């Protein structure tokens, strides 16, 4: 993969434990490299199985210049294709979501079945062979209901490890038996890496996220021990140990697994206790949906968090799921898509109120947007230089940066 000497020098000079050089957040060349080396070669989170619950249901996703259509075929299997007609290249599906019997090109009506096979092409002559003109496949996999795609011809093989590991953690929440209650999209004026870095730490949470920290323990996401807080830090550790034992006994995997910078398909998971009522990430820390997920009979099951490199994070509770997708648009523009899921049989207005369901993360997303955009303005300033990460509260930011730089080096070398 081509990269200028300047980019290679930046990669070689990256200082461990510090933020990245400004060009990683502002350069068009590096953004193009990101789309080819990161989003073009790795497993990218794009949606959930409840996006496409029935045969013929589809959604589209843009990964750099590539458009991908993800659908459910007649056998209820997931399939993904490049969203490009094999005739003259017109885009097949122009809506974000929909339902079709077959995929019909709106330009000249070339028609493909849900397996991608070309089944109709009028006026092409007696010698035309449709067998080699099916849609180009894209790799697609589900992790207990979370959908990932990979544009590479040979995708990273270690995805199977993440899928098998996380199926045990996510499985009891039965995501495939949920429905999307609310979906939001925000375009943030910041580089996608700033969005991910902001998510990977809670150093900023107490002073910036009053709604989120209602249900999150102050000492749950990294804290520098000191004589003034040693008792509180230890109390949270003891609480977590007790709750993990209780949840594990009930069949809920809870222990931390951290492979954020040790695998090509980087990921991390952990179930943590919630504060106050301890039931859900809401303004009163009580469930937002009265109909619980899966076969749960108890509300106080903490919050299972799942992070993936390079573009997602997710929170699973007893009553609902919140899932986040980060999709780069340009060097200083990023789409953040948030979905709130509840049990498929939950009734709006009776079992849940969308306003209560979304209040915490709608507020948090807007606050994070302001922080990311503030950071983008700062890294573009000539005075910016990489600063040190906190070893207590920004450890996961360092792991994201390590993973990112490592994957770029592997691509250009």
UniProtKB/TrEMBL annotation:
One of its GO terms (molecular function) is dioxygenase activity. The keyword Secreted does not apply. Residues 45-149 form the Rieske domain. Keywords: 2Fe-2S, Dioxygenase, Iron, Iron-sulfur, Metal-binding, Oxidoreductase. Transmembrane segments: none annotated. Its cofactor is Fe cation. PROSITE patterns: RIESKE. It comes from the Bacteria. Gene3D superfamilies: Naphthalene 1,2-dioxygenase Alpha Subunit, Chain A, domain 1 (3.90.380.10), Rieske [2Fe-2S] iron-sulphur domain (2.102.10.10). This is Aromatic ring-hydroxylating dioxygenase subunit alpha. Pfam families: Rieske, Ring_hydroxyl_A. InterPro entries: Rieske_2Fe-2S, Rieske_2Fe-2S_sf, Ring_hydroxy_dOase_asu_C_dom, Rng_hydr_dOase-A. Belongs to the bacterial ring-hydroxylating dioxygenase alpha subunit family.
């Amino acid at each position: 993969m081509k990269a200028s000497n300047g980019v290679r020098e930046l990669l070689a000079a990256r200082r461990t434990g510090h933020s990245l050089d400004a060009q990683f957040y502002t350069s068009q060349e590096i953004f193009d490299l990101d789309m080819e080396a990161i989003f073009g070669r790795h497993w990218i989170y794009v949606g959930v199985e409840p996006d496409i619950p029935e045969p013929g249901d589809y959604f589209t996703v843009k990964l750099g210049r590539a458009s991908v259509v993800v659908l459910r075929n007649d056998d209820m299997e997931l399939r993904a294709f490049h969203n490009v007609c094999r005739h003259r290249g017109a885009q097949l599906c122009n809506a974000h979501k929909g339902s079709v019997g077959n995929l019909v090109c709106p330009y000249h009506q070339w028609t493909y079945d849900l397996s991608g096979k070309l089944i109709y092409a009028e006026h092409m002559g007696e010698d035309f062979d449709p067998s080699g003109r099916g849609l180009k496949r894209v790799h697609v996999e589900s992790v207990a209901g979370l959908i990932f795609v990979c544009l590479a011809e040979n995708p990273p093989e270690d995805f199977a490890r993440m899928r098998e590991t996380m199926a045990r953690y996510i499985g009891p929440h039965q995501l495939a038996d949920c429905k999307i209650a609310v979906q939001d999209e925000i375009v943030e004026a910041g580089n996608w890496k700033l969005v991910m870095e902001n998510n990977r730490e809670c150093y900023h949470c107490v002073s910036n996220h009053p709604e989120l920290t209602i249900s999150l323990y102050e000492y749950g996401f990294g804290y520098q021990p000191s004589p003034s807080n040693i008792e509180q830090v230890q109390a949270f550790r003891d609480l977590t140990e007790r709750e993990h034992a209780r949840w594990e006994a009930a069949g809920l995997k809870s222990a931390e697994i951290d492979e954020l910078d040790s695998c090509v398909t980087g990921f991390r998971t952990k179930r943590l206790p919630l504060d106050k009522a301890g039931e859900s990430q809401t303004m009163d820390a009580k469930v937002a949906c009265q109909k619980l997920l899966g076969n749960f009979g108890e509300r106080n099951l903490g919050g299972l968090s799942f992070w993936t490199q390079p573009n997602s994070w997710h929170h699973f509770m007893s009553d609902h799921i919140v899932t986040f997708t980060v999709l780069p648009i340009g060097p200083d523009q990023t789409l953040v898509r948030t979905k709130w899921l509840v049990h498929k049989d939950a009734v709006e207005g009776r079992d849940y109120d969308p306003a209560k369901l979304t209040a915490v993360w709608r507020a948090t997303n807007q606050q994070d947007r302001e922080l990311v955009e503030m950071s983008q303005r700062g890294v573009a300033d000539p005075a910016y230089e990489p600063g040190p990460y906190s070893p207590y509260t920004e450890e996961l930011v360092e792991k994201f940066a390590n993973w990112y730089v490592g994957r770029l080096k592997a691509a250009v070398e």
